[in-house]
């Protein structure tokens, strides 16, 4: 009997001493048999590193490293994506404050095995905020073979909780093709780079969404994405990056033109609507 596919996940850690133990325990409780977890502390000023190091020393499936200087969320994640993808069939990121359910890996591996063209298997999420928990299933761009329509739906990001895809199980052979990713040219340089990663995975294959809730995403006030400013400067830089990635992609010329045209019309419509609202 063949061994199950190798899966490697990673946890970028920064100032997480209050909750990192719960995250590592949730990963250790996975029912899947063939996985490893890379834990990297981004030179935290608190006790995160010592907590992670002690945990990893007690479980051979966990490997600990620490950056000698603070690289930030994106550079640390990019480094770990490449390490994980290089030695696995499937890989995933697990933010230091999110809790995967025990069947997270097993269910998503099964989805990708059944859908050999798929680039990402997306989990249902329980989105925990201070005042409520909302269950979400991002399906807007799932099961779409046409690359133009699929990437159009990803890029327009008009459905809540689209970021579940970034937290899904990725096909490693595609991950190795999408990095490195340039930071934004202006504004907050790491603003919504998870969307750029998602879009580039969409270039390579369809998406599949689990019908089960497999991850609890915890929204903290001090999280990286919570502090991004969704202003016109950052959004403009993001759109510039989207068009650049389409232009530099492996897609054929006709697909590039069709996708850029659809997104240009969408942008024009949105900008026109905002302009008209100013005079109401």
Topology:
Blueprint: E1 7-13, H1 20-28, E2 35-41, H2 48-57, E3 62-66, H3 72-86, E4 90-93, E5 99-100, H4 104-114, E6 120-128, E7 133-136, H5 147-156, E8 169-171, H6 172-178, H7 193-204, E9 207-218, H8 232-248, H9 253-277
Parallel strand pairs: 1-2, 1-4, 2-3, 6-9
Antiparallel strand pairs: 4-8, 5-9, 6-7, 6-8
Helix pairs in contact: 3-6, 5-7, 5-9, 7-8
Task: Please identify which CATH superfamily we are dealing with.
Answer: Spore Coat Polysaccharide Biosynthesis Protein SpsA, Chain A
- Summed up, the domain count is 1
In the CATH hierarchy, what is the class? Answer: Alpha Beta
Mean pLDDT over all positions: 93
Strand content: 15-25%
Q: What is the tally of beta strands?
A: 9
Largest sheet: number of strands, sense, barrel closure: 9 strands, mixed
Give the quaternary arrangement of the chains: single chain
Order of helices and strands: EHEHEHEEHEEHEHHEHH
- What is the CATH topology? Spore Coat Polysaccharide Biosynthesis Protein SpsA, Chain A
Structure class: alpha/beta
CATH architectural type? Alpha-Beta Complex
Number of helices: 9
Level of helix content?
Answer: 40-55%
- End-to-end gap: 68 Å
Low-confidence stretches: none
Q: Cα-atom Rg, whole angstroms? A: 19 Å
């Amino acid at each position: 009997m063949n061994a199950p596919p190798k899966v490697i996940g990673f946890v970028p850690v920064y100032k997480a001493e209050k909750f990192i133990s719960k995250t590592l325990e949730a990963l250790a409780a996975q029912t899947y048999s063939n996985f490893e977890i890379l834990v990297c502390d981004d030179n935290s000023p608190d006790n995160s590193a010592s907590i992670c190091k002690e945990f990893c020393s007690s479980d051979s499936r966990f490997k600990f490293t620490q950056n000698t200087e603070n690289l930030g969320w994106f550079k640390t994640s990019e480094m770990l994506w490449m390490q994980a993808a290089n030695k696995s069939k499937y890989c995933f990121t697990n933010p230091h404050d999110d809790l995967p359910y025990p069947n997270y890996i097993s269910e998503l591996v099964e989805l990708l095995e059944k859908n050999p063209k798929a680039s990402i298997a997306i989990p249902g999420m329980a989105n925990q905020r201070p005042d409520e928990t909302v269950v979400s299933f991002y399906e807007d761009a799932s099961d779409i073979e046409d690359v133009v329509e699929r990437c159009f739906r990803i890029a327009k990001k008009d459905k809540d909780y689209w970021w579940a895809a970034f937290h899904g199980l990725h096909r490693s052979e595609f991950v190795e093709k999408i990095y490195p990713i340039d930071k934004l040219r202006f504004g907050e340089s790491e603003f919504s780079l998870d969307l750029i990663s998602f879009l580039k995975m969409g270039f390579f294959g369809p998406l599949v969404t689990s019908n089960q809730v497999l991850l609890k995403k915890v929204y903290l006030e001090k999280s990286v994405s919570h502090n991004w400013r969704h202003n016109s400067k950052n959004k403009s830089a993001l759109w510039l990056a989207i068009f650049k990635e389409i232009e530099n992609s492996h897609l054929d010329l006709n697909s590039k033109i069709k996708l850029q045209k659809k997104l240009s019309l969408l942008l024009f419509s949105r900008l026109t609507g905002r302009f008209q609202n100013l005079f109401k």
